[in-house]
Amino acid sequence: MIYRGGEKFDMSKKISEVSMGLWLAEHPILKEKSRSIREKYLGFLFCYTPPGRSRLTDSLLALYRKRILEDETFDPVPNPSIKGLFKYRFALYMDIWFLNAFGDREQAQYLLRELETKAGLAGIYKKKLRFLYERLYVRDNGVRFPRVEPLIDLWQKNNAFFQLPVRKIAFTANMSSGKSTLINALVGKKVNKSQSIACTAKLHYIWNKPFEDGFSAEDDNVLNLDADYMTLMTDDEGNKSSKITVGTYFRLMCGEPGPLCLLDTPGVNSALDEAHRKITKNAMAKGDFDRLVYVVNADGAIATNDEHAYMTYLAQNLGKEPIIFAVNKLDCFRAGEDSVSESLKGIREDIRKLGFENAVVCPVSAYAGYLAKKALYDGGLEEDEQDELDVMRRIFRRKDYDLSVYYPREAAEAGRQAAEAQTDPDRQKYFQLLCNCGILPLEYILTKK
Ligand SMILES: Nc1nc2c(ncn2[C@@H]2O[C@H](COP(=O)(O)OP(=O)(O)OP(=O)(O)O)[C@@H](O)[C@H]2O)c(=O)[nH]1
Ligand SMILES: [Mg+2]
Fold it and tell me: How far is the CA of 198 from the centre of ligand 2 (A)?
């Protein structure tokens, strides 16, 4: 177990703060029936967490008010004493450290002293407070805290996650080739707008969280730690930068990958909006990513003039890197008229001629993958989505449409094994679709160490 939580993380350089996993869905105070005790809880929390400390702390305080009292604007009376809240003391200490001093031992020590002097604790309880501090920030001292052990477990998951190196994967292409849909399919949730007209207008940094906490965070002018669907789908006009950041748990099938950031970019060929091209080209020139995925629309005319120009630009600047070409929309191929293997052969040849030396070609149907994960996790598909999912299942059950065969052996094998490991027949059929439509093997390629 990693106990390096005392070292100060530089959150601005490493993982985004939207990646922090929260424990508010399972918080002990949510079982409390008395509103006045809930208010008191917030009064104690606010006393040691004064508003205005940082943007993150203020957003957390807003979320705590929303979850605990269903009132984001409630103004608690700051109260330093633990009296009346004794039952919740360990959760309170943890909240105070989490909101003010996650990854910052010095600040945590300062708060420890504040609590020791102001909370009105008898000697023996001060000792327990110190033991909890030690357990979170120094080492496993063997002391157990039954009421908050699940929270400590989540704290340590966060802690371990924030120590790991980040992998950033950028997605680029012409408009409407399916970049955003592919990211939604990988994440297993709709975090990006996708539609048939040019739609992504900014750089979207999508970060994963160490565990599913039930919240999606978005930093788009306002830092909202509980962004609903509409918030995620709407760009805030007050955001004058070209960047939006999102944090959510990724529903990946090939295990836990550690910190990941998927960068969605605007299509480069929007005739209506020259700004889109500039934003994406700047991001490509900056090269702040470890991997690049180029999404080819297999349904359209491949290598139109402007696509050709952009690919040549990439080949000249990044051509020696191992770029992944995700050939998308293969569900649109019609048996008899098109051959998947012939088309892939042609695309491989075009890519080579353009000057990409280490390209990996990965055929997918992002939309099939997105629907399969939606059915697996959320259920309740709309009627037309259910129809489309049925069609996808029929298409990708056919042997000549099993896209996993075009992947490196270990990636295809990982996908197959994940499907075979499912005991529930419903789950197995969706896993099978995820494997055959290329999403599972692509996940493997993108996340393997
Ligand atoms: N049939 C099918 N349609 C897809 C697939 N992937 C994406 N689409 C559709 O293609 C259209 C464009 O998808 P987006 O994900 O918005 O494409 P994009 O590359 O992000 O587009 P921009 O943000 O405008 O650059 C949408 O209508 C998607 O539903 C796929 O695998 N199969
Ligand atoms: Mg898009």
Answer: 7
Tell me, what's the pLDDT at 2? Answer: 33
The most distant pair of C-alpha atoms in the chain lies apart, rounded to whole Å, by: 81
193 C-alpha to ligand 1 centroid (Å): 9
Task: Give the start-to-end residue ranges of the domains of the chain.
Answer: 17-163, 167-366
CA–CA distance, 9 with 177 (Å, rounded to integer):
38
Question: Does an H or E element contain 430, and which?
Answer: helix 425-436
Answer CATH for 167-366 from 3.40.50.1980, 3.40.190.290, 1.10.260.40, 3.40.50.300 = 3.40.50.300
Q: What is the DSSP letter of 324?
A: E
Ligand 1 near 303 CB (within 6 A): no
For residue 360, give the 3-state DSSP assignment.
Answer: strand
Is 252 exposed, middle or buried (CB count within 10 Å of its CB: 0-12, 13-18, 19+)?
buried
Q: Is the CB of 194 under 6 A from ligand 1?
A: yes
For the Cβ of 172 lying below 6 angstroms from any atom of ligand 1, the answer is no
d(CA 323, CA 357): 9
Q: Is the CB of 266 under 6 A from ligand 1?
A: yes
| Closest approach atom of ligand 1 to CA 181 | 15
Among 38-47, 187-196, 364-373, the minimum mean pLDDT is found in 187-196
What distance in angstroms lies between residue 86's CA and the mean position of ligand 1's atoms? 54
Q: Which of 176, 273, 373 best tests ligand 1's pocket when mutated (most atoms within 8 Å of CB)?
A: 176
| Percent with pLDDT over 70 in the chain | 94
For 379, left (φ over 0), alpha (ψ -120 to 50), or beta? left
Tens-place pLDDT, residues 263-315? 999 998 866 678 888 999 999 999 889 999 999 998 765 556 778 889 999 99
Indicate whether residue 315 lines ligand 1 (CB < 6 A).
no
6: three-class secondary structure by DSSP: coil
